[in-house]
């Protein structure tokens, strides 16, 4: 289906405005490719994610998972293709898109010489968060770092940094979450906390895209599952239509 056929569009100064319609995807990826020199990390990827949907994309290392997240997060430019997030074009409205997404990835995007509180205050001001002090106090307690809130991030363990990264991603209450192997480096407490948060956000109509090689967690959380291999989406299905055992068999068939 073409972009025109998928979205109800009105062109205006390079921005795509969409009508408030449940049939319009929150994230629309159309013929996306990304090349590094002659090597393609992504090849002609087409993807739609609707509001409130949790899509888990599975793939081995080097499959293109991180590249996809970085492009959707406006951190990397695509080689070709079109992307619309909440009706905004990635090509012309990246700043508006950033205000609507939260990203949890390998890189924490934290400043080592700032304290936990200072990091959250920096990001909170960048996103114009209201009642910022109260929001910081609440969210830093939720990630279990209340006693370390005035310590510099460089003194934190990897697991503690990942906890603070979760708080950073949530400080502006984004409607869309982009997760790149979010459980990497988390201790058991932080992993359980992240799982409960994701379940709660899912129940509150947030749109979530998680890329991972962790089949168990992804299958448990997702509404829809997909497989990416060698830069291509090779399988996609509603979670309710496929049993976990069958999906695992398909995954290992594609990536082996």
Molecular structure report:
The chain is globular. The protein has helices spanning 3-6, 65-72, 94-98, 116-126, 132-142, 158-170, 188-203, 215-221, 244-255; strands at 9-12, 15-18, 27-36, 39-49, 54-58, 80-85, 88-89, 101-104, 176-180, 207-212, 224-229, 232-238. By secondary structure, the protein is an alpha/beta fold. The protein has a single domain, classed as Rossmann fold, CATH 3.40.50. Strands 8-9-10-5-11-12 form a 6-stranded mixed sheet, sandwiched between helices. Strands 4-3-6-7 form a 4-stranded antiparallel sheet. Strands 1-2 form a two-stranded antiparallel ribbon. It starts with a helix and ends with a helix. It is built from 9 helices and 12 strands. Helix 4 (116-126) crosses helix 5 (132-142). Mean pLDDT is 89; it is low at 1-21. Helices cover 34% and strands 27% of the residues.
SSE map:
Layout: H1 3-6, E1 9-12, E2 15-18, E3 27-36, E4 39-49, E5 54-58, H2 65-72, E6 80-85, E7 88-89, H3 94-98, E8 101-104, H4 116-126, H5 132-142, H6 158-170, E9 176-180, H7 188-203, E10 207-212, H8 215-221, E11 224-229, E12 232-238, H9 244-255
Parallel strand pairs: 5-10, 5-11, 8-9, 9-10
Antiparallel strand pairs: 1-2, 3-4, 3-6, 6-7, 11-12
Helix pairs in contact: 4-5
Over all CA atoms, what is the radius of gyration?
18 Å
The assigned CATH architecture is 3-Layer(aba) Sandwich
CATH class division? Alpha Beta
Q: What fraction of residues sit in β-strands?
A: 25-35%
* C-alpha termini separation: 31 Å
CATH topology descriptor: Rossmann fold
| Net shape | globular
**Strand pairing plus helix content: what structural class?**
alpha/beta
